[in-house]
């Protein structure tokens, strides 16, 4: 188990480094540069003074060779210093630290909703004996995955904020402000949970142990929830690990539609301004969350299913 | 003017389009359908909530160039002068009066006494000097302010309330520049901070409102300055502002802004595009609009390109554009087709509408004269060359692409092949500078005709490669005269030269359009089509 954890951690570090390097190269490859972006922010035309841009570029070190810049940034990043945002002058780490709680709230609530709603749909669809209800419920996940998130968001705002006045349309104010954005973000996520869970529930219900349980006289609900769901939840759990990454990416759209502060908005702004230090910080941070979630998922697996043991070679059965 | 973002396009494109759209979009205008200012009796108190589309990431008026943020930070600072939006005339504000030397190189301002900043420090000639000395150090971060003071020789304190600004060259535009937010006067302590500190912490001004809180990407909150008594001579209310509090919320999605206004969650919104007009009409909302002064939207030619060197080709393009169709189909209601290179709200604007008519037959005959013959596919050729034009554009307004697609069709019908090339915002300046382009879709907001000199003088950047000639003389002379009648005549001459020679093909005036709840009164545009909120009240 210890070797397994160490190996996983080493893999995590490798992923972080790769994320950092790739994002650096992409940003460097893009046309334009952060200093021009900063100077032309809000200007009507391209009338910015090229000489002054050159001066500023020198001040920020963007005129150094790419490899030198990369080495400098990376060596600081390893020590947890991502430098200062080019567009605001604030340290990247504090910008991220300020935005993080908002996004954690949003993605946490969305994940909870997704699991409850998606799980509920899957369980009821596979349990019900009514054909029409099953068909209806099973048609929801593909729909949920395919509708654009921003459209769902605008629809919810129109109905529940502009018409019914139940929730605010924008902002970060408290629990009421969280409902609509979390619901928006939960739609595609919950749909995926439902899809995966329904499929593995149906598979599980065909298995011999279910027959055995039934033969022993267990009730339908008991068989469904205690036996089948327990086994079926493993693939769904693996998907949840991936969904966390999607939720964070989805926050760019949702935070924009609902004018919420958070990592998504920070990311969008940083990308537009080609704010290299800030984008780097966001990428590494996002990768960190993603890697950590998957690590937790992998470690939880053996607890749910004792049959999954960590092979002596250090290779996880489900990895 | 933001459209609904399309999140199905690749993320980079989406993000930049989305953000830049809201960032740059500024529009302005004379008041539109039924802004019922003046009804009922003005009263003090209340909070105005205003939803804007973007946050510039900075709350220093001297550095901010995005209208969406200028709306709020403008209220923090006073300027030496103000500009009458009706007449374009410069009138007193912090300066009671001023003297300009006859060669327009020195400007002496006589300040009001008794003005204080919100940190209780006093307005003196020294504070003004501190401001003007610090502005050039902002460099490109405060490009607007820095540009207004370019060529400054010295700022001298004559006595505690008299300050003299001297330039190396004649600089008639400076007087108007002192009326802008960019040269708004900040306390000495504020101007001593670094540009980044001023951006994130805000600045201390002498304005009718004081910055209370700035949450990046979320909101800017201002509170009324008690004891304020030195408002612009243009304002109707004397003393303090009516409103207790101003809250500017950042709401990037145009549809959410419009819905929030309709459902009463906010009192006013910026950047109302054509798509949201219908929904807002008929409700408890008035649309207020005013054309932005300055250089209108149009095609900025690279006048040194082989095909475009020929004035007849440029004039043919000018005649082939149906401005009215573009204004009516693409832009918000009330947008005017261009009638000069300057918008009609710019001081010293001259109507050249007769040169800017749509006349496809005339365009074709000019192209025939220039030796471009109709080809088999409808595109004209000369020898083996096709008559083609690449137009560079940046996604800083949702209207850019549809407008250009219409122009593409219109030019095709006279035999000109147009390719549209979208650039990143950051690519435009380097492209213009390099000279490797045919034409660019462009506009500049400025309430002084000197903007023509910045854009078309061959002695400055000359991004458009205009050939040296009479135009230069007119542009330099208007910058050097303090005689208003003479300046008007020189500016008229410059507009005629630019339009008749078709160095630039004017298309439409950019219009600022706000949505304002009918309970909000006297929310007025200033000369630059931005807003002042001192006289605004809710009732």
From TrEMBL, chain A:
Membrane topology qualifier: Multi-pass membrane protein
Biological process annotations from GO: transmembrane transport
Keywords: Cell membrane, Membrane, Transmembrane, Transmembrane helix, Transport
A cellular component annotation (GO) from this entry: plasma membrane
InterPro entries attached to this UniProt entry: BPD_transp_1_N, MetI-like, MetI-like_sf
SUPFAM superfamilies the UniProt entry points to: MetI-like
Transmembrane parts of this sequence: 12-30, 109-129, 136-157, 234-258, 278-297
Domain ABC transmembrane type-1: 100-301
Broad class of the protein's primary localization: membrane
Compartment annotation: Cell membrane
Family label: Belongs to the binding-protein-dependent transport system permease family.
Protein name: ABC transporter permease subunit
Species in which this protein is naturally found: Streptomyces fagopyri
From TrEMBL, chain B:
Top-level taxon: Bacteria
Keyword annotations: Signal, Transport
All copies of domain Solute-binding protein family, residue ranges: 89-450
Pfam families the record matches: SBP_bac_5
GO molecular function: peptide transmembrane transporter activity
GO biological process: peptide transport
Any single GO CC term annotated in Swiss-Prot or TrEMBL for this entry: ATP-binding cassette (ABC) transporter complex
InterPro entries: Peptide/Ni-bd, SBP_5, SBP_5_dom
Family to which this protein belongs: Belongs to the bacterial solute-binding protein 5 family.
Protein name as it appears in the record: ABC transporter substrate-binding protein
Organism: Streptomyces fagopyri
């Amino acid at each position: 188990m210890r070797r397994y954890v160490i190996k996983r951690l080493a893999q995590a570090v490798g992923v972080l480094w790769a994320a950092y390097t790739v994002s650096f190269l992409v940003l460097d490859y893009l046309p334009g540069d952060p200093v021009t972006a900063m100077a032309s922010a809000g200007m009507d035309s391209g009338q910015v003074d090229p000489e002054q841009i050159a001066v500023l570029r020198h001040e920020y070190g963007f005129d150094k060779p790419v490899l030198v810049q990369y080495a400098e940034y990376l060596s600081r990043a390893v020590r947890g210093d991502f430098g200062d945002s080019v567009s605001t002058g604030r340290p990247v780490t504090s910008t991220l630290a300020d935005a993080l709680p908002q996004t954690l709230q949003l993605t946490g609530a969305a994940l909870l909703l997704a699991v409850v709603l998606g799980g509920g749909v899957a369980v009821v669809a596979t349990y019900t004996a009514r054909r029409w209800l099953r068909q209806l419920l099973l048609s929801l996940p593909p729909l949920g995955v395919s509708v654009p998130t921003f459209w769902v968001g605008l629809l919810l705002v129109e109905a529940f904020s502009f018409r019914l006045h139940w929730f605010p349309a924008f902002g970060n104010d408290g629990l009421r402000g969280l409902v609509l954005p979390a619901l928006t973000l939960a739609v595609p996520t919950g749909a995926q949970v439902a899809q995966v869970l329904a499929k593995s529930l149906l598979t599980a219900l065909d298995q011999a142990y279910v027959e055995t349980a039934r033969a022993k006289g267990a009730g339908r609900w008991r068989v469904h929830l205690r036996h089948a769901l327990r086994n079926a939840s493993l693939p769904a759990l693996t998907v949840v690990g991936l969904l966390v990454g999607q939720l964070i990416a989805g926050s760019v759209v949702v935070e924009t539609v609902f004018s919420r502060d958070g990592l998504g908005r920070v990311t969008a702004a940083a990308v537009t301004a080609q704010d290299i230090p800030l984008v780097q910080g966001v990428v590494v941070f996002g990768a960190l969350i993603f890697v950590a979630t998957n690590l937790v998922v992998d470690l939880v697996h053996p607890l749910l299913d004792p049959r999954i043991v960590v092979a002596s070679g250090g290779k996880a059965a489900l990895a | 003017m933001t459209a609904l973002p399309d999140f199905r396009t690749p993320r980079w494109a989406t993000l930049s389009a989305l953000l830049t759209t809201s960032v740059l979009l500024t529009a302005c205008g004379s008041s539109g359908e039924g802004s019922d200012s003046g009804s009922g009796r003005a009263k003090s108190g209340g909070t105005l909530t205003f939803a804007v589309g973007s946050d510039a990431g900075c709350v220093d008026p001297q550095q901010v160039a995005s209208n969406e943020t200028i709306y709020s930070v403008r209220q923090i600072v006073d300027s030496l002068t103000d500009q009458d939006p009706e007449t374009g005339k410069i009138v007193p504000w912090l300066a009671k009066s001023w003297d300009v030397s006859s060669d327009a190189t020195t400007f002496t301002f006589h300040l009001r006494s008794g003005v204080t900043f919100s940190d209780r420090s006093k307005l003196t000639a020294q504070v003004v000097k501190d401001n003007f000395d610090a502005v050039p150090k902002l460099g490109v971060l405060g490009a607007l302010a820095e540009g207004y003071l370019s060529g400054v020789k010295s700022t001298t304190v004559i006595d505690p309330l008299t300050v003299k600004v001297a330039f190396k060259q004649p600089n008639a535009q400076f007087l108007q520049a002192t009326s802008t937010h960019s040269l708004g006067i900040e306390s000495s302590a504020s101007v001593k901070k670094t540009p980044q500190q001023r951006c994130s912490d805000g600045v201390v001004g002498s304005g009718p409102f004081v910055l209370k809180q700035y949450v990046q990407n979320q909101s800017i909150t201002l509170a009324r300055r008690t004891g304020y008594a030195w408002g612009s001579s243009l304002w109707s209310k004397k003393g303090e502002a009516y409103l207790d509090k101003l809250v500017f919320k950042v709401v990037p999605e145009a549809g959410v802004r419009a819905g929030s206004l309709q459902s009463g969650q906010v009192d006013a919104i910026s950047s109302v595009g054509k798509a949201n007009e219908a929904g807002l009409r008929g409700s408890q909302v008035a649309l207020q609009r005013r054309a932005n002064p300055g250089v209108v939207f149009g095609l900025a030619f690279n006048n040194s390109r082989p095909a475009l060197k020929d004035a007849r080709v440029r004039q043919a393009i000018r005649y082939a554009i149906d401005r009215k169709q573009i204004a009516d189909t693409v832009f918000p209601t009330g947008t005017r087709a261009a009638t000069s290179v300057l918008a009609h709200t710019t001081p010293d604007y001259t109507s050249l509408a007769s040169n800017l008519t749509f006349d496809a037959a005339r365009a074709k005959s000019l192209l025939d004269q220039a030796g471009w013959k109709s080809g088999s596919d409808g595109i004209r050729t000369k020898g083996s060359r096709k008559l083609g034009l690449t137009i560079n554009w940046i996604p800083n307004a949702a209207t850019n692409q549809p407008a250009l697609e219409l122009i593409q069709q219109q030019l095709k019908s006279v035999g000109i092949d147009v390719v549209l090339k979208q650039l990143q915002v950051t690519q435009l300046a380097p492209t213009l500078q390099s000279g490797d382009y045919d034409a660019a879709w462009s506009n500049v907001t400025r309430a002084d005709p000197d903007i023509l000199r910045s854009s078309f003088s061959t002695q400055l950047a000359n991004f458009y490669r205009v050939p040296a000639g009479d135009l230069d003389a007119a542009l330099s002379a208007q910058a050097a005269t303090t005689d208003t009648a003479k300046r008007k005549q020189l500016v008229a001459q410059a507009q005629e030269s630019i339009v008749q020679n078709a160095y630039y093909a004017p298309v439409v005036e950019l219009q600022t359009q706000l949505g304002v709840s009918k309970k909000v009164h006297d929310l007025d545009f200033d000369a630059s089509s931005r807003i002042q909120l001192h006289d605004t009240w809710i009732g």
